[in-house]
Amino acid sequence: MIKQIFEFKKTDRKWHIPVLAGLCVGIPILGGYFTGTMAGGKLASMSALVILYVHTFSISGGMVTLMTCSFGMMLSFLVGAIFGFNPYIGALALGLFAMGVHLALFYLKMNRPPGNFFFIMIASVALCMPFDWQKIPSNIGYIGIGTVISCLLGLGYTLLVVKNNTDAPLHAKSKYVNLVESATFGFMVGFSLLIAHLLRLENPYWVPTSCAAVMQGASTQHIWQRGLQRVLGTLIGLGIAWMLLLMHPTPLMICVSIIMLQVIVEFLVVRNYAVAAIFITVLTIFLAESGSNLSVSPNGLIAARFIDILIGSIIGALGGWILYNEHVHWLATRQIRKTRIALGRKKGV
């Protein structure tokens, strides 16, 4: 187990994918800096991560996936922005939305990594922003700008690099099993946001985001391993972020750091999640936190983020145990089938 945590895996991922991700994130954030709209630039950079859903198998398939996920990003932010008026309704909405996204990706055959993670992240951020009806259209506009930039760069990338191969096959899975997984995933993500609100955490979106990240594992062992990797990587990453913030970096330095960190993260995340989590932590702090939080109180910020991520990782690990518990799956699947048969008999009568 310890060996697997620190092991660097071999991967066939091309070197230009991290560079492409860095460009997609970098253009909006630099645009926000030079136009004096850093908050909007950061939103656009988050949505530009949609580029990670392009898999190098076919040109047409890659672009359809990219445009579909771009719409999903805007929908995710819209859902979060609409239901952000009440923390408890927001937690319920996030849980139902996470369940719906998990199901939709399964039926659209788009459930390979990064899966539902970025949709949940965008929705969580929108839910936890100060509620303001008037700002929703402009914020969705920023989200749209980020996805358009990724679509244009993705089109150029697929035309230059990608060959028209057939898409990689996905593992078959029972629709009943997927329904149980989706319900479990949605419940744990919504529950994690509810816990964050009950604890009155300052930026509660870190908790469901961490929960969703840990639950991306492929098995119970993988999820526990991923949770431990995230906590260890986060602890080191917070230390690095704290030292960097004590230097009082300028907004331009933060923008450049975000671009460099994105490239490093995409290079490492498929090789070793624990090491990648170090840079993910610094990246997300620079990207998600406002300028005032970064400069005024780095000590309090770092301590708060560790607590948030630790809580989210623990809930995610618990959710992962439920997600891959065969007995729970068997009982839930059997109950769904019984209910469906009973409803069918009533309709027949």
Automatic annotation (TrEMBL):
> Which domain of life does the UniProt lineage start with?
Bacteria
Q: How does it sit in the membrane?
A: Multi-pass membrane protein
Q: Which UniProt keywords apply?
A: Membrane, Transmembrane, Transmembrane helix
Q: Which residues form the Integral membrane bound transporter domain?
A: 192-318
TM spans, by residue? Answer: 15-34, 89-108, 115-133, 139-162, 183-199, 231-264, 270-288, 300-324
| Cell compartment(s), UniProt | Membrane
- Transmembrane is among the record's keywords: yes
Q: What is this protein called?
A: Integral membrane bound transporter domain-containing protein
Taxonomic source organism: Dyadobacter fermentans
